[in-house]
Amino acid sequence: MTETLHIVGGGMAGSEAAWQAAEAGVAVVLHEMRPQIGTFAHQTGNFGEMVCSNSFRSDDDEQNAVGLLHWEMRRAGGLIMATADAHRLPAGGALAVDREPFAEAVTQTLRSHPNITTDHGEITDLPTEGKWIFATGPLTSARLGEAIARETGADRLAFFDAIAPIVYAESIDMDVAWLQSRYDKGETEEEQKAYLNCPMTKPQYEAFIDALLAADKTEFHEGETAGYFDGCLPIEVMAERGRETLRHGPMKPIGLTNAHRPADKPYAVVQLRRDNKLGTLYNIVGFQTKMKYGAQADVFRMIPGLENARFARLGGIHRNTFLNSPTLLDHEMRLKSRPHIRFAGQVTGVEGYVESAAMGLLAGRLAAAEILGRRLPPVPPETAMGALVTHITGGAEAKTFQPMNVNFGLFPPLEGLRGGRKGRKERYKGYTDRAKALWSDWLAAPEAVTA
């Protein structure tokens, strides 16, 4: 009998960690406090529930670092990527999924695995014995967060994350909106028409910005400061940085032609991406917000085509918790003060569904190997997986550590390739070719037997 691995948190990281360890032959108990204890953002008790976007972002494994991470996770038999592929929606080159069937499938797969049992009680303290992975994510419960803070001897770091609203498709005026992916990207007609586009003239855009800036916003609690992750800024925060910011960000009009008025060039465009397979729900891309609910409906109905929009979910903002991992975790993601405990996912300071699941994949494999009396070789830092884990366990500057998406800036440079924008395509292909070879070698490498 091998030792049981306890995993706390049934999000992307915890679900992937449980799957990897169970597939290696280790008995796993997956602890998830939902649905007995809910959170601000979750709607169900399912494992792998997507609470913000329904997108895993770019699936390009030759020119994009997150696409490369997709490839590495698929190559490692990852549950999250296999389930995402089975519930894929058209998204113009991105990997978007039908979120409810996706989470239901992850839940069913884990519950039916013979090596996994589930427990729905809340874990409120750090255990003194056993093998554990904490993958509680950005919404770590208050009591557990306090226990982590006591153990690490440091105040919890936090930033604020926002979620975007979801609109019923039948309430969108298709005499105004049209279907098109930017630059008609995609290999099929369905991919090339994966987004709904709502055009704005300059006066409409200016009026929208005015309303956005004047709208009632959610106030922070006493003692909280408004630190945001730059990859998920509320739209009103972007607007406060300059009136043209949104027009050069989520509302940029380039690569789009109004199907109703081809000769008219929109000043700005709001895009909506399909949120479920039926095509009955669309989320407003990049429109994370901290506006109060009443204000959201008023402001978003100023968007041409959304004048009569009905919302399946309005946006919101919540506090995210993460560790100063470079000072607290060792190279195998173990808590230095309690090495029987590993951390994985967003609580370690990676940002995004894919990055969280990737760190769960790695933590699950590392923990399983340790329980089975084996040791895995270090993950090559030239891979997407290795670049991320290197960043959070020592590669980042501890004093300025903030949540990070995977990106080629984390990779060791390639010698002999041209720098700058003109050499980018060749350089990115070089990064991905090198990573794929090294990741394949790492997966095939024999595990060292420990005493």
UniProtKB/TrEMBL annotation:
Primary location class: cytoplasm
Alphabetical keyword list: Cytoplasm, FAD, Flavoprotein, Methyltransferase, NAD, NADP, Transferase, tRNA processing
Catalytic activity: uridine(54) in tRNA + (6R)-5,10-methylene-5,6,7,8-tetrahydrofolate + NADH + H(+) = 5-methyluridine(54) in tRNA + (6S)-5,6,7,8-tetrahydrofolate + NAD(+); uridine(54) in tRNA + (6R)-5,10-methylene-5,6,7,8-tetrahydrofolate + NADPH + H(+) = 5-methyluridine(54) in tRNA + (6S)-5,6,7,8-tetrahydrofolate + NADP(+)
InterPro entries per UniProt: FAD/NAD-bd_sf, MnmG-rel, MnmG_N, TrmFO
UniProt xrefs under SUPFAM superfamilies: FAD/NAD(P)-binding domain
One Pfam family cited in the UniProt record for this chain: GIDA
Subcellular location: Cytoplasm
First-tier enzyme category under EC: transferase
Assigned GO CC terms: cytosol
A molecular function GO annotation: tRNA (uracil(54)-C5)-methyltransferase activity, 5,10-methylenetetrahydrofolate-dependent
Taxonomic superkingdom: Bacteria
Cofactor: FAD
Binding site for FAD: 9-14
EC number: 2.1.1.74
Span of domain MnmG N-terminal: 5-374
Gene Ontology biological process terms in this record: tRNA methylation; tRNA wobble uridine modification
Described purpose of this protein according to its UniProt entry: Catalyzes the folate-dependent formation of 5-methyl-uridine at position 54 (M-5-U54) in all tRNAs.
NCBIfam families given in the database record: gid_trmFO, PRK05335.1
Family in the record: Belongs to the MnmG family. TrmFO subfamily.
Protein name: Methylenetetrahydrofolate--tRNA-(uracil-5-)-methyltransferase TrmFO
